[in-house]
Amino acid sequence: MSDIVAQARSLSRAYLRGSTEVHAVRSVDLTIKAAEYVAVLGPSGSGKSTLLNLLGGIDVPSAGSVELLGHNTRQLSDRRLTRLRLERIGFVFQRFHLLPALTATENVELPMAEAGLPRIQRRGRAADLLDYVGLAHRSDHRPGELSGGEMQRVAIARALANNPAIILADEPTGELDRETGAEIAELFSRLNRDGTTLVVVTHDTALAEAASVVRRMRDGRLEPLAET
Amino acid sequence: MINVLSLAWRTLVRRPRRLVLFVAGVTVAAAVLFDMVMLAEGLQRSIGEILEATGYQVRVVPKGLLPFEGGASIRDSRALAAELGTDPRVSDAVPLWGQTVYLSSPGGDPRPTASFGYGAPVGTTPALRIRSGRTIQTSGDLIIDPIIAAEFGVGVGDTLLAGLEPDPAVGALRRRRTVRVVGVANFMFAAEGSATIGLPIEDLWSLAGTASQPAALILIRVAREEDAYGVAHDFRDRLMNVDVYAIPEIIEAAGDRLTYFQQLSLVLGTVSLGVTFLLVATLLTLSVNERWGEIAALRALGVTRGRMLTQVAYQGFIIAAAGTLIGFGAGLLVARYLDEILSDFPGLPVDVSFFVLDFSDAMLAIGVLMTTGLFAGLYPAWRAASVNIAAVLREEIQ
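^ inputs. structure came back:
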């Protein structure tokens, strides 16, 4: 079995902003292997987030292809792509996107409920995951009662809910102060040490320092930076 | 518990004050709809219930009129009732006449009363609810309503003077006679607040000085309920100078004259459904617009379009259901209040209601309201389900 989790080939994405065509991603080739920790660095507007969305199957390439866990994302129906995201991919957003009406536990349970896991199993797994991210004591709190760092930890636990093959994180420390950002960076390192494949797009060099592969993007193009 | 319905509910209650306002709006619209449903055929149903309560299934009335409509009468009603009574399907045929009769106590001032003359066989006076005493049996018997009893301070066994009208020259009643109170009763066809009496039809004819034996209608009781239509049909064919109706035919004929209630109800009911649709659609559109990023994130996490659509549509259903249930109670209260106001209209029988609740119509209204809520949620639900995930997430952080 191949250890390639995701592979972009000649990947391009252009979209219209008003009447202007924006080439967010231009002819990108990128391979993500199992258990890798890939950081994509670059300034705002360089196309990092678009690349992440393409890799995660929530955006459609204008040209080229994305092979995700053996599936060409362009050839999958919306239903199958949604199922693939649910079961095999974990997303972490800059703005957390926890459901304010649900507790931390329920937010972590949500993808498992969507996948049809029985309540007793998902409740147990949600407790384990919250414990893993250091929030066992906050399990019954709603997002409004949590700090930014705590919300991101819950979001990371949610991303891990269905035991995904890869986690894609878009500026996960973008809304956090430096100290809290460092805690999240440490959590990502621990995740990777425990075998999770990670792709993180970020401005945060501290977050990138822990990555096994660091790539830089500029004007939609990807440049190899360094390997640690 | 995280199911779609639970998520829909918990999403709605995130803004409780706004939810309360919108549910209140739907409640008002639903209450109006229920009242219109009750009003549309309420009067007809109420008339039907009163007619059926008399136990007489067929009415013979003057040509071109409904019972007690206009001042025309059937001549020689006693003979006609006797003739109709010979039909083997008929168990009872009773002429009924209405006139204004004046009553006075000895030496007192006369006062007008609405009077019903009953040509009923002994002990079977229709359209009365005896409160005390008995029904009329012989000439000189009088039944009074509680208003007369209180006004004259009389009860069963007391006597009064009855006459057609006071003589302006002497102030006394003309063609007067002494009548004895044999019962106190409620008259089903009496108008609200009117003083009403009942006496044998022969006494009423005698007081009126008429020899033509007039009747406003002849009530017919059939031995078997299912014969009512056949009897009405046969008598209608046989009798050229009168109209004959079974009760459902009267209700239908009354309905033709009350179409403005139905038109009013249709217009206001449609408006209330439109208001419900707009309220639900507005609230859910606002909610979806506010949750755009959250919806995109949920779709990214693997929530299907169908689940997203269902969740928002359920929100519409919940608002409509809450408004409908509260509106149902509010509608009943408002209908009761309006009925009290409308029943004070002069000339209407006491027992008539304008707003009558029919179970199947109420269930239909509930179903239509909830379906409206569900449909109102479909457009915002479709928008939520077809969110461009990447575009929303991209725009959100720019």
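The first strand of chain A starts at residue 4 and ends at 17. Chain A touches chain B at residues 15, 49-50, 53, 56, 58-59, 78-79, 82-83, 85-87, 89, 91, 93-95, 97, 99-102, 106, 109-111, 113-115, 119, 158, 162, 170-171, 174 (CB under 8 Å).
thumbs up if we can close this ticket
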